[in-house]
Amino acid sequence: MKSREQEYREIFMAEALEYYNAMSRHISELERNPTDEPSLNELFRLMHNLKSNSRAMGYNSIGELAHHMETIFGLIRSKEKTFTGSVVPVLFTGIDTIGEMIRAVGANEDMPTVERLLDNLDRLVRGEEPILEEEEDDTDEDANRKLELSDLVYIQIKKLDHLMNLVGELIIDRDRVLTLSQEIGNPALLMAATHLSRIADELQYSVMDARLVGVGSLFSKFPRVVRDVATAEKKDVELTMVGEDIQIDRNILQIITDSLLHLVRNAIGHGLETPQERVAAGKPAQGHLTLSAQTERDDVLIQVQDDGRGIDVESVRRKAVERGLVAANVAATLDADAVRAFLFEPGFSMAKEVTEISGRGVGLDVVKLAIDSLGGQLRVESVLGQGTTFTLVLPTSIAVKGALLFQLDQRNYAIPLMHTDSVVSLQPENFNVVGGVLLTRLQDENVPVVSLRRLLHNGDGPLPPAVKAEVEGRQDIIIVKYNNRRLGLIVDRFLRQQDIVVKPMSKPLDTIDLFGGVTLLGSGQVCLVLDVPALTRLFLAKRP
Q1: Residue 184 Cα to chain centre, angstroms
Q2: Is 497 a member of any domain?
Q3: Claim to verify: residue 54 and residue 168 sit in the same structural domain
Q4: Quick one: how far is CA 273 from the chain centroid?
Q5: Are residues 233 and 203 in the same domain?
Q6: Where are the transmembrane segments (predicted)?
Q7: Do 187 and 238 belong together in one domain?
């Protein structure tokens, strides 16, 4: 397996060779027409990009030469110099030398010396004549010149999406073939099916790998955002970015762009204090905001962390009661995590006034919905007076999801593992009824439990009050977790855990919120995928 450094080196090489080939073409066009502004502008842009990329990779000699060349092209572009006379051979030599240096990187060889060339470029900047060697017959050195093609191919995202959909179909058929071959029991067929399974797995992960991009491609857009928002809010903010090389599916990054923007604006507008407030609180005048990414098992964690005022849990508790989201006597019993969960309710805002940044009723619920659509989670941790951290827990890919399969009324269903807390089997004595709701004690927490059959088939009215007598024998329960709330779903029996390819529901079933999609099992059976956020909201709306 390639190291991350080797992958970056190959990408640099491919892009640098493209830059070199484009430079060679544009400088030839500029020689034919010294006033060709499009070619001149493109040469300046290519040199600037090569300089930045080379320095980022540690190839400082290439970066230095590109910097000198960029300076000359800038002077020509501003009409301070013309592309005539001795300027022409020096710049041609510069581009040829850049090509040699790029090839040296690829071959892991020593770089050519460029002191004389850099001196000549400096002379051109100062308006002096360069020292040119007497031209030699270099015919032999020139048709031996190698023509090289870049190893980098740019592919439209929609083509990768189509390829991933085809792989998804292949994965489904792979499971069906494996199941049938095991049932038939033919050794040759089973061997072929096993080989097909391995190839399908490799193809799946290769396509998924091709869709990965570094989160830095999104993070890099935030220094300007932070600067603009901080200026509008009259705050002094330092931004730190960590883990920019962590890779994630490009489509996931696209979907969370607005969410991350909202969280950053929220951190500056709500979280960080003004310099005067920070000094009065014994803090440095400058606030600190950190954007970070890291991997955790199969997930990518993206965090927005500030060292601001933190979330006042008691203020949120009062606001939730004022908004009618919870009764005052119930609110008083909620722990800090449960109270902070109200921040994700639609329209919930703690802003004291409406500004360009906050208080417009578009709150964290929008962020939560976007993360939910990916099968992810949004967590919040906060210490009053010290700061707040929002964590986006995201899958690396949305094409294939881990799921728990179970049966209900002899039908197969799936629940994404992202929202599955645990599975338990309990006896009747493990349950109590409080306020018409069935409860069980798990890990020092009273968890409401409901029959999934009753929840799905009860109609539009509220659920009838639970009675303990209805719980007979062992109960298989899936504990799901959403927005810091746990809910137990009673099912007929657990089946197994497996990766599934989730397809969107077709009309008119796509209007049913309780199902997030559909998948096909290896047996060819259709399996509905439950939407845990929708189920949780339904239970809260229908509970007695």
Answers
A1: 43
A2: yes
A3: no
A4: 29
A5: no
A6: none
A7: no
Could you tell me which residues are beta bridge partners of residue 29? none
Give the pLDDT of the chain (544 residues) as one tens digit per residue: 456 677 777 778 888 888 898 898 899 889 889 888 999 999 999 999 999 889 888 899 999 999 999 999 999 998 999 999 999 999 999 999 999 999 888 888 888 889 999 999 999 999 889 888 654 444 444 565 566 666 666 778 788 878 887 887 787 778 778 888 888 888 899 899 889 889 988 888 888 888 888 888 889 889 988 998 999 999 999 999 999 888 888 888 888 898 999 999 989 998 999 999 999 999 999 999 999 999 987 789 999 999 999 998 999 899 888 888 888 888 888 888 888 888 887 777 665 544 444 433 346 888 888 887 787 888 899 999 999 999 999 987 766 678 889 999 888 899 988 788 888 988 888 888 888 888 888 888 888 988 888 888 876 777 888 877 778 888 899 999 877 778 999 999 898 888 777 776 666 666 677 887 777 776 667 888 888 888 888 888 777 7
Are residues 302 and 204 located together in one domain of the fold? no
Q: What is the spatial distance between Cα 154 and Cα 244, in angstroms, rounded to a whole number?
A: 21
CATH code, domain carrying 161: 1.10.287.560
Outline where 235-345 has alpha helix (H).
Answer: 250-266, 275-280, 313-322, 328-331, 336-340
Q: What is the CA radius of gyration of the chain?
A: 31
- Burial class from Cβ neighbours inside 10 Å (0-12, 13-18, 19+) for residue 406 reads buried
Question: Which among 416, 540, 522, 430 is positioned nearest to 485, based on CA atoms?
Answer: 540
Site of tokens 């095991």: 182
